[in-house]
Specification:
Elements (H helix, E strand, L loop, with lengths): L2 H23 L6 E6 L5 E6 L2 H23 L10 H27 L6 H18 L13 H5 L1 H28 L2 H34 L1
Antiparallel strand pairs: 1-2
Helix pairs in contact: 1-2, 1-3, 2-3, 3-4, 4-6, 6-7
């Protein structure tokens, strides 16, 4: 057994847990289960219980496959420079996906969804995880704040991701806290506002830094 496969065993192990849980509750599941909810937490799509298998495959196996293949197809092999940090990032990301999978299966079994704020809290956790690893992401075409300016200059990439990492970490915490303390309706606007800030501000920041560096070099 090579070392690469041995490192993947813990990740594969946690990814199999929702499938084991699904097998355990299979006979207790109703014929029709909810497979999608709108932003208000209302069920807007139903399917048979076999659709839960496809949902888990899409959520877990597809995510794992993408994260597994990215370092291999990275043309500049920059992601491999992250070493163990990329493995930690992959593990943490998939762990959040596993937690989300368990939540989906629990809701499908009990036919209840008390509040959509739980989903927001899970997304907030994911943002915290991503923000924590932004500072170690090397310039690449797949992960991170990929603007013309960050991809053009390694220093701009580094500065932008150091800044964006803090912003995403704080934004994720803010989403978690507000999802646990405010109403569903208020949370929808809060989430949209925070997400917009997390996406737009780093892009603007990278452009400003790029222009400042461009002036220095003139």
């Amino acid at each position: 057994m090579n070392s690469t496969f041995r490192k993947e065993i813990p990740i594969i192990g946690i990814m199999l847990m929702p499938f084991v849980y699904l097998a355990f509750i299979w006979n207790t599941l109703p014929a029709k289960v909810p497979t999608h909810w709108n932003y208000k937490g209302e069920i807007d799509h139903w399917g048979d219980k076999f659709s839960l298998i496809y949902l888990l495959l899409a959520l877990l196996i597809l995510s794992y496959g993408i994260l597994f293949i990215i370092p291999k197809i990275d043309p500049k092999k920059r992601i491999t420079l992250m070493g163990g940090k990329y493995y930690q990032f992959k593990f943490a990301f998939l762990l959040v996906m596993v937690i989300l999978s368990f939540f989906i299966l629990y809701v499908a079994k009990n036919q209840s969804f008390s509040t959509p704020n739980i989903n927001f809290a899970l997304i907030g956790i994911l943002f915290v995880v991503l923000g924590n690893y932004f500072k170690v992401i090397q310039p690449n075409y797949f992960i991170g704040i990929r603007t013309p300016w960050t991809l053009e200059n390694k220093e701009i990439w580094k500065l932008t991701h150091a800044f964006a990492g803090k912003l995403w970490f704080i934004g994720g915490l803010l989403i978690i806290v507000t999802s646990l303390t405010f109403s569903d309706q208020f949370m929808i606007y809060t989430f949209a506002s925070v997400l917009g800030m997390m996406v737009i501000v780093p892009i603007v920041y990278s452009y400003i830094k790029f222009k400042k560096l461009e002036k220095k070099e003139q």
